[in-house]
């Protein structure tokens, strides 16, 4: 009935994506600006990247952030995957509504509330604040994102393959690692990446829960941004944007490839059978 | 024939097995449950408790504090010392209730603007040729993954008085003198719409893409004009996506801190910003806890509605 997209749809796509991308493109372009004045173009230069690499405080903050993000994403992925399994598989149990409530609420809970409440908890149990408290805070909210991502992967799961493995005498624990995990792996990997970038990105919760010696990169960027826009910060932002972009695109290509291979294997198995 | 009995017996055994959860099954539930109880739920009770305390020059900066060594008597005195004074203070100082009202107003307006911009975008994506869709989806997801702080920061350089937007508008002669946008509420609206657009587009696109096109064809065969078919069929069927998307924008936007702080000005009153300065600048932990409790009470209704909707959606999928 329809021949290609209509002019209206095309216009809304072009305008929508221009709105989403123009600010980031401008930010990247002006990170290569020679002039210190961020809004006056004075020729191409990479000097702000050199400046960035000589800024020891910035590098220290980046290192803290990378460690927090890696640790919290890994723990959050384990906890979130278990939580997703519980949500999809465990049926009814006492306090299920509370459990699913605690999974969905952090997705929309304002960060100031999460940050303040966690800080007051750490104070109440007399925990010195620093790397570990930020890590725990990030794990807590990102495990909920992981649970939601893995849950959607589990929803379309064919349980007969698991049952087949169990019927052949495979213990439940081994069945999980040999059968279930490989199938839901794309969801688990996506969950880990999401948890990693959420942690990389967070300013508010980290500001509440951090202590001396554990300044994260967003906190460092924020304190410099308050003093004004500088090309050096543009350079840092460009590097972060590049890392996330490459990571997300690479992950989606790998997933697509694996999916294609799986489909091919299924077809081959069906042809042989 | 001999084999048929065994699978039959298995089918009968399976539900019984399911009903009696193994130790491993309970452990599986207990681990994430305990984590969330301790790190997500318990802190709210502590916030509530501290909102009833009074500020003190001490570490931690509030009174009374629990001391187990004082035993039952100490606990009773503790409860006696609690008061709702901080809440009374919140109603007396106009700053707080103005902040709440203006947060809800700014969040609601931004959500409406996001919907107006996001709906055509999601619709265009869902109606695009099937071969384009994965790429388009990727293009929406990418900014969603990109740092929030960076995306807000990017707008400072654009909206400044000598910024790129004003330069562009001046050079094409639309305006004679630079517009002041940065550090006004207008900049806050732009920031919220821009930052939360993917949150609205993604669930909306998911429902629009699943929409059965034969319904629209049937309507058009029966002589229904396209715009009427859009209002009578597309809009009602996409409503779950619209609701989910609006919740995902509205709820976090009410408590937003980074956007009003970096893009807004002194006229911008938002409760996230008020809480932040109460905590970090005034170091008044009890009052900021009371601010948080009230904010949570305001958001409880939309959060519960959002959860029910999510749960129904996930049960429908499964």
Helix residue percentage of chain A: over 70%
Estimated share of beta-strand residues of chain B: under 5%
| Most extensive protein-chain contact, per-chain counts | A-B, 95 and 96 residues
- The rounded distance between the terminal residues' Cα atoms of chain B is 35 Å
CATH architectural category of the largest domain in chain B: Orthogonal Bundle
Provide the gyration radius of chain A in Å.
23 Å
CATH class identity of the largest domain in chain A: Mainly Alpha
How much of the sequence lies in strands of chain A comes to: under 5%
Radius of gyration of chain B: 27 Å
- Low-confidence stretches of chain A are none
Sheet having the most strands of chain B: 2 strands, antiparallel
Mean pLDDT of chain B: 83
Description of the structure:
- The complex is a heterodimer of chains A (273) and B (318).
- Chain A has 2 domains: 56-228, MetI-like fold, CATH 1.10.3720.10; 231-273.
- Chain A is mainly α.
- Chain A has helices at 7-30, 47-54, 56-89, 96-108, 111-124, 131-155, 160-167, 172-201, 204-209, 217-225, 231-272.
- The longest helix of chain A has 42 residues, at 231-272.
- Chain B has 2 domains: 21-81, no CATH class; 86-317, MetI-like fold, CATH 1.10.3720.10.
- In chain B, a hairpin with a 6-residue loop joins strand 1 (54-55) and strand 2.
- Chain B is mainly α and 318 residues long.
- In chain B, helix 4 crosses helix 14, helix 5 runs parallel beside helix 9 and helix 11 runs antiparallel to helix 14.
- Helices cover 76% and strands 1% of the residues of chain B.
- A two-stranded antiparallel ribbon of chain B has the order 1-2.
Task: Provide the fold topology.
The complex is a heterodimer of chains A (273) and B (318).
Chain A: H1 7-30, H2 47-54, H3 56-89, H4 96-108, H5 111-124, H6 131-155, H7 160-167, H8 172-201, H9 204-209, H10 217-225, H11 231-272
Helix pairs in contact in A: 2-11, 3-6, 3-8, 3-10, 4-6, 6-8, 7-8, 8-11
Chain B: H1 5-19, H2 23-51, E1 54-55, E2 62-63, H3 71-81, H4 85-92, H5 94-127, H6 133-145, H7 148-159, H8 164-171, H9 185-210, H10 213-221, H11 226-254, H12 258-262, H13 271-280, H14 285-317
Helix pairs in contact in B: 2-14, 4-14, 5-9, 5-11, 6-9, 7-9, 9-11, 10-11, 11-14, 13-14
Keywords (chain B): Cell membrane, Membrane, Transmembrane, Transmembrane helix, Transport
InterPro entries (chain B): MetI-like, MetI-like_sf
Pfam family, one (chain B): BPD_transp_1
């Amino acid at each position: 009935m329809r021949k290609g997209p209509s002019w209206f749809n095309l216009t809304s796509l072009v305008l929508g994506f221009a709105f989403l991308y123009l600010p980031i493109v401008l930010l990247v372009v002006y990170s290569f600006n020679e002039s210190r004045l961020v809004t006056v173009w004075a020729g191409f230069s990479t000097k702000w990247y050199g400046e960035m690499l000589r800024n020891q405080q910035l590098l220290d903050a980046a290192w803290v952030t990378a460690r927090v993000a890696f640790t919290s994403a890994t723990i959050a992925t384990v906890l979130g995957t278990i939580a997703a399994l519980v949500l999809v598989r465990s049926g009814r149990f006492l306090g299920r509504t509370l459990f699913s409530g605690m999974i969905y609420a952090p997705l929309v809970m304002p960060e100031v509330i999460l940050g303040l409440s966690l800080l007051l908890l750490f104070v109440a149990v007399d925990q010195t604040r620093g790397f570990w408290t930020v890590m725990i805070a990030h794990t807590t909210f990102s495990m909920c994102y992981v649970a939601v991502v893995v849950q959607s992967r589990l929803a379309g799961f064919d349980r007969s393959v698991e049952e087949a493995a169990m019927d052949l005498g495979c213990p439940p624990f081994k069945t999980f690692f040999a059968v279930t995990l490989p199938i839901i792996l794309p969801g688990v990997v996506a969950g880990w990446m999401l948890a990693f970038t959420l942690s990389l990105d967070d300013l508010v919760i980290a500001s509440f829960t951090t202590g001396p010696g554990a300044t994260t990169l967003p906190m460092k960027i924020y304190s410099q941004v308050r003093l004004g826009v500088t090309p050096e910060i543009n350079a840092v932002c460009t590097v972060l944007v590049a890392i996330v972009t490459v990571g997300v695109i690479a992950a989606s290509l790998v997933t697509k490839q694996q999916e294609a291979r799986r489909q091919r294997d299924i077809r081959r198995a069906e042809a042989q059978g | 024939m001999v084999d048929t009995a065994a699978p039959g017996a298995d089918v009968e055994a399976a539900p019984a097995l399911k009903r009696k959860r193994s130790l491993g099954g309970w452990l599986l539930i207990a681990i994430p449950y305990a984590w969330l109880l301790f790190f997500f739920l318990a802190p709210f009770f502590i916030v509530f408790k501290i909102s009833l305390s009074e500020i003190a020059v001490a570490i931690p900066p509030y009174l009374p504090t629990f001391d187990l060594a004082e035993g039952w008597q100490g606990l009773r005195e503790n409860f006696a010392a609690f008061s709702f004074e901080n809440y009374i203070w919140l109603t007396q100082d106009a700053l707080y209730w103005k902040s709440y009202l203006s947060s809800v107003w700014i969040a609601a307006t931004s959500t409406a603007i996001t919907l107006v911009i996001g709906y055509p975008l999601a619709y265009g994506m869902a109606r695009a040729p099937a071969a384009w869709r994965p790429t388009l989806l990727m293009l929406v997801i990418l900014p969603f993954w990109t740092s929030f702080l960076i995306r807000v920061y990017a707008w400072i350089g654009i909206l400044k008085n000598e910024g790129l937007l004003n330069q562009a508008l001046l050079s094409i002669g639309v305006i004679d003198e630079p517009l002041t946008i940065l550090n006004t509420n207008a900049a806050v609206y732009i920031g919220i719409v821009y930052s939360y657009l993917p949150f609205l587009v993604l669930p909306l696109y998911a429902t629009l893409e699943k929409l059965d096109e034969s319904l629209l064809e049937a309507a058009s065969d029966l002589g229904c004009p396209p715009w009427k078919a859009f209002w009578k069929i597309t809009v009602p069927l996409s409503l779950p996506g619209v609701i989910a998307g609006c919740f995902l924008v509205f709820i976090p936007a009410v408590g937003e801190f980074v956007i009003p702080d970096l893009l807004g000005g002194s006229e911008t009153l938002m409760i996230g910003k008020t809480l932040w300065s109460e905590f970090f600048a005034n170091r008044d932990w009890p009052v900021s806890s009371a601010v948080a409790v009230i904010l949570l009470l305001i958001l409880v209704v939309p959060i519960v509605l959002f959860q029910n909707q999510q749960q129904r959606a996930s049960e429908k999928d499964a």
